[in-house]
Structures are given as C-alpha cells and as structure tokens.
Amino acid sequence: MPTDAAAPLIALIAGEDSGDQLGADLITALRKHYPDARFVGIGGRRMQEHGFESWYDIRELSLFGFAEVISHLPRLLRLRKELMARLLAAKPAIVVGIDAPDFNLGLERRLKQAGLRTVHYVSPSIWAWREKRADKIGQSVHRVLCLFPMEPPIYARHGIDARFVGHPLADRFPLVSDRVPARRALQLPLDVPVLALLPGSRHSELERMGNTFLEAAQRIAAAMPGLRVVIPAANSRALATLQGMLARGPRDDSAPILVDGHAHEAMLAADVVLLASGTATLETMLAKRPMVVGYRVSPLSYRIARLFNMLKTDVYALPNILARACGMGKDTLLAPELMQDDFTAEKLTQATLQLFRDSERRGAIVAAFEQLHEALRGHLPGHAGDHAAAAIVELLGHGR
C-alpha cells in the first residue's frame, strides 16, 4: 500500500484500556495534521469511535505479571507474527506502539529492521527495571515518547531520542480539586468522612487482593462510625466480581457503596483513598487525595523478580517515585506502601486510619501533590496528545 503524505496510513498498537485512551487522544491530535489519515492495528472501543480499524481484539493483550503472560505465550507469539506480516504488507508511514512493552518492543524491533519508522509511546519503567533496557529500546524504535520528566535524561545517557510530551492524565484534573461536586454526583453526604476503595481493575487482581481490601475497609468502617466507603468498579467484569464479594459482607449502613465506573469522582469525593498500586495511584495524586497503596503479585512473579534482581527501586507507587525524581528527597514517602507480605488487612487498616486522624499530614501531602501535578504538565502549552502527535509528525517530516 503506497504512503500518501496527505493521508498516511498510521499503525497504532495499544495493549489495554489505558492505551486505548492514549490512542484515542493521539488519533484526535494527529487528525489535526492529517484529516484523511487511516489508522489501523490493535485498539479498543475509544480508538474505534475515532475511526480506528482494529485488526484484533485489544483484550488479547490485556495481561499482567510473568505467570499470566507465560500461560498465554504461544497465543501471543502467534498473534504478533500475524500482526507483523500484516504490517509489513501494509507498509504504514509509521508504527506507534502504545505501552504494552513486552509485546510491542519485539514487534517494533523487527519492523524497524525491515525499514519501517517506529515509535514507542509510554516509556517502560527503566528507572525501576534495569536501565540497560534503554539500549534495547533504542534498537526497536526511532523515538520514545515519555510521560514523565525524569525519563528523557536516562535515554540521553544511552544516545536515544526520547521526548517528554507531558502526562495525559495531568490534563484531566484541575490543579486545585473540589470535593463538593463529586460528592453530589455520587449522592454522598457533604459532612461525613469518605473512603474511596480501588482494589484493582483486572480480574486476576481482584481474585488475588479483593477480599483483603474489603476486609480492611470493613475494619476501617468499624473504627470510624459514619464513614462511607465507595468502590468504583473499573469495568463490567470487575463490577460483577465485586458484587459477588460484597454479597458475603455486611448489609448495614457501613456496607460499601459499589458504583459502575466513576473512579475519578470517587477519588475526588474521598478524604482518603485505599487502592492497589498502578496507574490509579497517579490519578489519586492528581485528584490531590492522600492514599494508602497496597499490592500483591502472584508468588511465581514475585520469586522471578527477586531471583533475577529485576527491581531497581525500593518504592513502587508512582507518587513516591515522582517525589524522589523531582527532588523532594530520597526518603520521601508521600503514600504509605504495603506490598507482598506486608499486604494484610490489619496493616492496611492501621495505615489508613493514621491518615484519617492526621489532618496536618494530609494537608502536607496535598501541597506536595500539587507540585507534582505541575511537574507532569511540564509547563507545556496544550495537551499531552498534541505534543505526542507533534513528535510523530516531526518524524514523518510532513503534515499541516
């Protein structure tokens, strides 16, 4: 298929829900330069609503952890081989892998070797998982688009072209948040303490950690009469799973309020957030809400990570990593972390109650989160999707 400079064929490969949102924003921004461009590859509902042609179901790539990936490895390898053949036949003007590094980087490397332009959008966490990976990433792509300001300097040490484009989530939250509209939207009283509970979005996470989070919420509610606990389900499958778990719990006024979606409203409505480690910790930071973070991976994944000394950081939650990267001190811990063996209902309860009872600490955390929000915006005009699109257009060498 010939490449038309005015209407290029652009391939996007997104791996899960967060990548689908990034891809949708990117398509919108790229259409400002190429109104007639055609977008193909792997994407979800949001991307398809913007005219994207998805060759495969995005859920094929929505896996997490070593054990989960290993069990699906033959199918993933077949899918990647088929996708590579289709892309080589189509000859897109550029291929953009959106996150999903375990799948995308190998694909991008082969496509780059075959003469296609490649970009990786969302840098793998090289600051946590072996900086030397930057060299391999450079072999796979012509440019890396970074969401965090501390990432391009790491790539620069390896002679790799990387651009900070700002974090798209920083565009979705105001710098100063307002609790009242969120509580009204969720029909929560304005004068009672509220805990938002986000126990994970993947089914495997809920199976592994859901009951521990729910037990902690029950203990916190018992220690704080009048507390309202709100749980935003990330998707329909999570909603059904949580409904089953909650059916076994108390049904009085202390019972959690389960809502379908509305995660941002739940965060904004809360005084404190108790949640699983992941992107939601960044969203909670941008909502300016103090949080307690917990996580437990499968025993096999944990043993593999420890055996090969893969982790290069002693903190896991993004707000804590950003605080250190932005010069707030190497011992700064804005969000208490309870990981693996420390992930117990008792410890989650204690840490959450301490936050509820220390208003001075909560105020200091909110002030620090406002500073980090500004850092993620990067003082760049416009939105993150616009900057990502501009970096791609620059590689293509044409556009409006």
Automatic annotation (TrEMBL):
Enzyme class: transferase
Keywords tagged on the record: Glycosyltransferase, Lipid A biosynthesis, Lipid biosynthesis, Lipid metabolism, Transferase
InterPro entries recorded: Glyco_trans_19
Record's keyword annotation contains Transferase: yes
Keyword check for Ubl conjugation: no
Highest taxon of the lineage: Bacteria
EC numbers: 2.4.1.182
Catalytic activity of the protein: a lipid X + a UDP-2-N,3-O-bis[(3R)-3-hydroxyacyl]-alpha-D-glucosamine = a lipid A disaccharide + UDP + H(+)
Pathway field: Bacterial outer membrane biogenesis; LPS lipid A biosynthesis
PANTHER family: LIPID-A-DISACCHARIDE SYNTHASE, LIPID-A-DISACCHARIDE SYNTHASE, MITOCHONDRIAL-RELATED
Function: Condensation of UDP-2,3-diacylglucosamine and 2,3-diacylglucosamine-1-phosphate to form lipid A disaccharide, a precursor of lipid A, a phosphorylated glycolipid that anchors the lipopolysaccharide to the outer membrane of the cell.
Family per similarity comment: Belongs to the LpxB family.
Protein name: Lipid-A-disaccharide synthase
Species: Dyella flagellata
Lineage: Bacteria, Pseudomonadati, Pseudomonadota, Gammaproteobacteria, Lysobacterales
